[in-house]
């Protein structure tokens, strides 16, 4: 059985290639997040023909989240 998504507010910061890095996420959450955003997503993480190293994935997930959940956005064909 699928679990519900942890995003509780009606808005989530969308993934934007080259934009939603950890610094941008922190700035948006620090200014607006506590009251308005249910969570944030990372930049797109490209799916490759080989497994990603854990350090590469963690690099996308680090940074302050101000108590909000963070989603990892995958992109591939």
What descriptive keywords fit this protein?
3 strands, 77 residues, single chain, alpha/beta, 2 helices
- Output the number of helix runs: 2
Roughly how many Å apart are the termini? 27 Å
Share of helical residues: 25-40%
N to C succession of SSEs: EHEHE
DSSP, total strands? 3
Structural class by SSE content: alpha/beta
Q: Biggest sheet, open or closed, and with what strands and sense? A: 3 strands, parallel
Percent range for β-strand residues: 15-25%
Rg computed from alpha carbons, rounded to a whole number of angstroms: 13 Å
- Poorly predicted regions: none
Question: What is the 3D form?
Answer: globular
Strands in their spatial order, largest beta sheet: 1-2-3
Mean pLDDT equals 83
Structure overview:
This protein has helices at residues 22-36, 54-61, and strands at residues 11-13, 37-46, 70-75. Helix 1 links the parallel strand 1 and strand 2 (37-46). It is built from 2 helices and 3 strands. It has a 3-stranded parallel beta sheet with strand order 1-2-3, covered by helices on one side. By secondary structure, it is of the alpha/beta class.
């Amino acid at each position: 059985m699928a679990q519900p998504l942890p995003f509780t507010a009606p808005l989530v910061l969308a993934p934007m290639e080259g934009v939603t890095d950890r610094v941008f996420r922190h700035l948006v959450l620090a200014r607006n997040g506590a009251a308005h955003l249910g969570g944030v997503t990372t930049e797109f993480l490209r799916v490759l023909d080989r497994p990603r190293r854990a350090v590469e994935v963690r690099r996308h997930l680090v940074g302050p989240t101000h108590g909000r959940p963070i989603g990892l956005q995958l992109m591939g064909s």
